[in-house]
Task: structure prediction
Amino acid sequence: MSAPLYNRDILALAVANADYPPLPEARHHISARAPLCGSAIILDLDADESGRVTKVGLHVEACALGQASAALVARHAPGRALGDIRAARDAIAAWFAGEGAMPDWPGFDLLAPARDYPARQGAILLPFDAAIAALENDEVTA
Result:
């Protein structure tokens, strides 16, 4: 392992969740839990008519890595559609499994040390899973 699991950048991202408060007026409210570590997220999400994310709000109860991942999703999901977020999630999961290149989701390089810690990977994938569930729900109701 070349970088510490927790560092100043991870902790800065973790506290950035305060920039994305819950959105009671959002169209979708998704609650999800990572079974292995118990991390939890409530994700509020709005999308436009074409299914692209417009706003994200969060309430996260997770380790600093899970919180950092949630901040990266909230920061970079606006403007993206379901396929974009699903592709990023699948690339992250594959990379964690030792397959493929490091995912190109902005800021993900900060989470790279978690590759050596499978017990933390569910917390990192959780915000992506929640966003996918919200957008899938949007497809059903649109």
In short: The first strand starts at residue 28 and ends at 33. The CA atoms of residues 41 and 60 lie 4 Å apart.
